[in-house]
Write a structure and sequence with these properties.
This protein is an alpha/beta fold. It has a single domain, classed as Alpha-Beta Complex (Spore Coat Polysaccharide Biosynthesis Protein SpsA, Chain A). It has seven helices and nine strands, in the order βββαβαβαβαββααβα. A seven-stranded mixed beta sheet has the order 5-4-1-6-8-7-9, with helices on both faces. The two termini are 30 Å apart.
Length: 190
Amino acid sequence: MTVIILAAGLSERMGENKMLLPFNGHELILETISKALLYTDNVITVIGYQKERMEEVLMDSGSEIVYAPDYLAGQMVSTKRGIEAVCDDDFAILPGDLPLITLDDFIGCENALSGHQAARCVSHGIPGHPVMIRKEHRERILSFHGTMKDYLSLYDISTYNASIGSVFDADTPERYRMLLNGNLDLSVLH
């Protein structure tokens, strides 16, 4: 399984690059990468916004860095850049601002993938990450016009009842503050 971490966007709702915010003594993106590396050695991080700064931060992260020059065209474009870099492997996709994701989330999602084309984590009824997809879908996704949500709606998706870390992202200053103080209020996710 190759894990694709999406870290290319502008972080518009945060007002600054959320991937570079401090978390546990380093940048938030490094926390998410470290969790993915507990699960697999095959981690790809897709970057776009603030490319040079992101490359500097990720240099010794243990993750392969893929640049999406067309990142302004939306998340699906960055997702496709990550999928293009996967070599004949099933793949998992998650955003880079999930620092509380757990090894059990990855393992549970992979177990849910057994016998299915795709699987995803769900926590407290909220669809989360990672989303794991069989390698047979690679070319179909690369030629698909629409969002990943649109693509996944075409298939029966297995789910795994995961931790709150699979859904609690750092999209806004309020959520980031909650991550820092450990007071996670799920009502902000709806």
